[in-house]
Amino acid sequence: MAKKRIQFMCTAFRDGFQSVYGARVLTPDFLPAVEAARDAGISWLEAGGGARFQSLYFYCNEDAFDMMDAFRGAAGPDANLQTLARGVNVVGLDSQSSDIIDLHAKLFKKHGMTTIRNFDALNDVENLIHSGRCITDAGLKHQVCVTLMELPPGCTGAHDAAFYSDTLQKILDADIPFDAVCFKDASGTAVPSKVYETIAAARKMLPAGTFIHFHTHETAGVSVLANKAAIDAGADAIDLSMAPCSGGTCQPDILVMWHALRGTEYDLDVDVEKVRAAEEVFKDCMKDYFLPPEATAVEPLIPWSPMPGGALTANTQMLRDNNIMEKYPQIIAAMSDVVRKGGYGTSVTPVSQFYFQQAFNNVMFGPWKKIAEPYGKMVLGYFGKTPVPPDAAIVKLAEEQLSLPVTTRPVLELNDADPSKGIAAATAVLQEADLPVTDENIFIASTCKEKGVRFLQGKAELGIRKIDKAAEAATAAAAPAATTNGPAEYNVSVNGNDIFMAFEGNMVTVGGKVYRVAIKPESGGSATTNSAANGSTSSTDITSQMPGSVFKQLVQPGQKVREGESILILEAMKMEMEVASPIDGTVATVNVQVGDQVATGQVLATITA
């Protein structure tokens, strides 16, 4: 009896990059691996969209449209190149107007893409109607999504098979054109039995021959079993990846799934030896990139705090950037409460980031003391309708802190009425910055905002994480010599407390925790000392409440400010946080510049009364 051939999309170069490297990978570094995958017979590849759009402008100093063109060249003219879109959010964290959503589809078609997978994190079908029609009108294949996850234990009211069937029925009733249906579990938490029940029900609901695709991650350790459940229920395709971007926070490896299906009635129909060779090329391409240890691990606590693989490492890397990685366990624990009270939006971008930002605030400032603006806007209805009503007390806090009312207006209606959104608004921004007004530039300015404009102005900074071998050598040379071939070990007394420290290469153990470090000569810079008060004039230091980077400077020395007036905007964990003056007075000093990294308690500015 002939085996059923199971199709798969290789996600290594989009979801894999996001799930391991926070999407911060330079195009020339990975194109040889794309060519190797092509030569191995892999012709369906995820090639962009999602976080692999904004990250190129934010961290890689590259143009995402140039990347897509290069990807098409490497993959060949016949490859099915697929990208990821977030309904009305397209490829950003904020939602867009109708004309930008239409421009998204046209531009991705122009730059060589074949298929767009289109989802809404709230499973609000209203957010899929216009975007889905734009995708098909542009001549692209449309893969419409239902998003899955497991609710934290004890929660009910959504995210069961009946809820997913109801969402699918709404998609059918809305007459959204599509070429395939995808069930997307970004956190990898949906239990296999529920996956089977959901897809079996969908197979009965959909017209005969409808193509069904299933997507999951290994984060919770059940991806292979979930894939097998989906296939048994009637799915036609699954998502698989290649090492080093496989397993852990990623999709299971092609070779792992091939092995899991041996002896069954299913076949991936791949030349495993060619795939093995392609993976060796890919590993060599990525050998200089820092591989976070959590990217290769299963996280048993994820079912309680469903953090998607694509967001987990991006967030831990930002915690590392801000030297607060020790907060990660507390933030993950806090996520459970945030999900429970937020209306059960699926933990997938952008909602997963909203969850993490609010959990971050709950840890850094105290539970529910500071509502993260995106999370607050979500519970107030500005991203669409949540699966269940959010907690009433949290909604009230969001109204008070954000000074916004609850809304039930459709997201597109809100955005089309917003003068700061759309093609006309982006055109004005480009003209003010004396930049060329092209379709690509309009889209970049709309979806990437100030950072996109900085890229177009040639002011973007490189923020990838490669292993600095020269710094490692310098660290090894600068580390105190050991008396043996093992690590140099010390007991360091700090404020009367003894702390064990060990140096070995570029790894330092401090009090039982291991850190990767780089020792560089001090380059010097301006001091951040406070100006002394003289006479009867008093001064007030404005300090940072949390680590981050300076995003905007809103005042200059000598400028008068009122109590509560913003003087700086910091950016941390993809959030913009205003730093306000606590008094009426005059700005004496601004001790930081745009782009500076700041630490908790650092003096940012001084105000004289």
UniProtKB/TrEMBL annotation:
InterPro entries: Aldolase_TIM (IPR013785), Biotin_BS (IPR001882), Biotin_lipoyl (IPR000089), Carboxylase_cons_dom (IPR003379), PCB-like (IPR055268), PYR_CT (IPR000891), Single_hybrid_motif (IPR011053)
Record's keyword terms, sorted: Biotin, Ligase
Record field: compositional bias (Low complexity): 524-540
GO process annotations (BP): gluconeogenesis
Stretches assigned to the Pyruvate carboxyltransferase domain: 6-276
Location of the region described as Disordered in the Swiss-Prot/TrEMBL record: 524-544
Cellular component terms per the entry's GO annotation: cytoplasm
Gene3D superfamilies reported for this sequence: 2.40.50.100, Aldolase class I
Name of one Pfam family that matches: PYC_OADA
EC number: 6.4.1.7
Any GO molecular function: pyruvate carboxylase activity
Source species, domain of life: Bacteria
All copies of domain Lipoyl-binding, residue ranges: 531-608
Keyword Ligase among UniProt keywords: yes
CDD domains for the chain: biotinyl_domain, DRE_TIM_PC_TC_5S
Protein name: 2-oxoglutarate carboxylase large subunit
The species this protein was found in: Rosistilla carotiformis
Taxonomic placement: Bacteria, Pseudomonadati, Planctomycetota, Planctomycetia, Pirellulales
